[in-house]
Amino acid sequence: MRGPSFKQGVSLDGPSGNVDLAPTVLYLLGITPDEPMDGRALTEALTGNDAVEWSTGVHRTERSVLGGRYSQQIGNTLYVDEGQASLVSYL
Fold first, then answer.
1. Do 35 and 63 fall into the same domain?
2. What CA–CA distances, in Å, run from 86 to 31, 33, 58, 72, 80?
């Protein structure tokens, strides 16, 4: 990231992804979304902010989708490092 709001000359090792772009821009504009968003504001990349604490673990998540339930084991609490997925049909 680049600009007056971002730290210069540092490399952050915390997880991040494209999903964090919108929450970060809204944070910089001082806008609070009306509904929860995927992703997060990358505040640790902004000047005057400290690094955030994060950890890696194995979690199981499931979501209902048309035709069944999608499940995936993820290797990180916020971002998918790797995973196994399956669609269990309701039919």
1. no
2. 37, 32, 16, 7, 15
